[in-house]
Amino acid sequence: MSKKIGFVGLGTMGFPMAVNLKKAGFDVIGYDAFPAVYPKAEEAGITMVKTLKEVAERADEAVISMVRDYAQNVDILFSEDGLLAAQPKNKTIIVMSTLDPDTMNALSKKVEEESDLRLIDAAVSGGASGAEAGTLSIMTSGDEATVKSFQPYFDAVGSNTFYYGKDVGNSQAAKLVNNLILGINMNAVAEGMKLGNHYDLPQEELLNLLKVSTGDSWVVRNWGDVSEWTAETALAVLQKDLIAAYNQGIKHDIPMPFNALSSTQLFNSMEEEKPEA
């Protein structure tokens, strides 16, 4: 009998991740706040339930959270009809949402103090395309034995898993480092493309040059997709991470001037209007 894994949050990233878990042979028990996703998920073989309590009851050993932020994680766990309504014991919440080190630690402490659940952190990188292909990079932290025991789940949704120690929140710090570098690099490539455009350089030929030269990067190799990121989706999420990295730098007295510049220039460099607050 295949293991039953709970999955909460079947959005742009969560849905393909849940599908890949199903393809890997797991019985996925899914829940999402938006009913519109249910028919598509059920067609993909995911067992969708109507309440979070059912997710906690039916999952064998773990529930993956792929909701947006700290507030939503608190809600799915501690609300009146949340996961804790099932009074689960000896199960683990695998938080794959992007938070930040401080809020991740706060969530872990709250779970530890108010429930019989364990919590580990497993932030992901790779975007929607990586989620669909099952090639996400997964950054983990928490109790090492617990993290290692869930490697089959990570293998189903990603191609690389990294462990950053027992302190929950460390994986969020690792993701901030990655996205800080991504944001700086995106600004650099966008500016380079603008200069090339001024001289009417064929963009595809310029990208071909960068791919085999010292200007190469993941952004260059995926510029066709990256250049289409919008202020309403990926760019807004990235800016949130750049601001979180900046705040961590302020808190711990770590100067990061390029990150600060990137967070203010991101929408200008990508020629996208900043979304309203």
TrEMBL record:
One of its GO terms (biological process) is organic acid catabolic process. Pfam families: NAD_binding_11 (PF14833), NAD_binding_2 (PF03446). Residues 4-165 form the 6-phosphogluconate dehydrogenase NADP-binding domain. GO terms for molecular function: NAD binding; NADP binding; oxidoreductase activity, acting on the CH-OH group of donors, NAD or NADP as acceptor. The active site is at K175. InterPro entries: 3-OH-isobutyrate_DH-rel_CS (IPR002204), 6-PGluconate_DH-like_C_sf (IPR008927), 6PGD_dom2 (IPR013328), 6PGDH_NADP-bd (IPR006115), HIBADH-like_NADP-bd (IPR029154), HIBADH-related (IPR015815), NAD(P)-bd_dom_sf (IPR036291). Residues 169-273 form the 3-hydroxyisobutyrate dehydrogenase-like NAD-binding domain. Keywords: NAD, Oxidoreductase. Belongs to the HIBADH-related family. PANTHER family: 3-HYDROXYISOBUTYRATE DEHYDROGENASE, MITOCHONDRIAL, 3-HYDROXYISOBUTYRATE DEHYDROGENASE-RELATED. This is NAD(P)-dependent oxidoreductase. It comes from Planococcus maitriensis.
